[in-house]
């Protein structure tokens, strides 16, 4: 599965939320100014070509649905990010993430708790 563009990811998020949707539903989800129907149709076609979504035909309409779970997609993206930008080093990524984001002390403590629980499980 190929990486989605920013506009494809936005549309994919709508589809993950809805689980199944017609073009009309997806257009309704966009904030104003809404994109043209042809723009959304092009995005949907690209996403089908990338193997991320498919559709069933209902009457003369298509009902789109995701082929990829949100968790699986983002897990692959994060792992690719670590591999490509941090030489495969999770600790380099964690160092960057904790220093370059505006996490509060309590958010950092929550992260530490998650890591400590994962260490216990392994």
Topology of this protein?
Blueprint: H1 6-18, E1 21-22, H2 23-29, H3 37-49, E2 53-58, E3 61-66, H4 70-85, H5 90-100, H6 105-121
Antiparallel strand pairs: 1-3, 2-3
Helix pairs in contact: 1-3
Helix content: 55-70%
Which sequence of SSEs, written as H and E, runs from N to C?
HEHHEEHHH
Shape: elongated
The termini sit apart by 29 Å
Low-pLDDT sequence parts: none
Largest sheet: 3 strands, antiparallel
- In round numbers, the mean pLDDT is 91
Oligomer: single chain
Report strand %: 5-15%
Rg result: 19 Å
Briefly note the structural class of the backbone: mainly alpha
Q: Number of helical segments?
A: 6
User: What's the total number of strands?
Assistant: 3
Spatial arrangement of strands, main beta sheet: 1-3-2
Structure description:
There is one protein chain. This protein has 122 residues and is mostly helical. 63% of the residues lie in helices and 11% in strands. The protein is built from six helices and three strands. The protein has helices at 6-18, 23-29, 37-49, 70-85, 90-100, 105-121; strands spanning 21-22, 53-58, 61-66. A three-stranded antiparallel sheet has the order 1-3-2. A hairpin with a 2-residue loop joins strand 2 and strand 3 (61-66). It is elongated and about 55 Å long. The chain starts with 5 loop residues before the first helix and ends with a helix. The mean pLDDT is 91.
């Amino acid at each position: 599965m190929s990486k989605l563009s920013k506009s494809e990811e936005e549309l994919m998020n709508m589809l993950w939320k809805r689980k199944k949707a017609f073009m009309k539903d997806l257009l309704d989800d966009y904030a104003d100014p809404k994109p043209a129907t042809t723009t959304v149709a092009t995005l949907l076609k690209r996403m089908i070509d990338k193997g991320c979504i498919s559709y069933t035909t209902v009457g003369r309409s298509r009902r789109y649905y995701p082929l990829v779970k949100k968790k699986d997609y983002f897990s692959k993206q994060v792992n690719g990010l670590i591999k490509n930008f941090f030489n495969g080093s999770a600790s380099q990524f964690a160092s960057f993430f904790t220093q370059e984001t505006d996490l509060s002390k309590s958010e950092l403590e929550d992260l530490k708790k998650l890591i400590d629980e994962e260490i216990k499980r392994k």
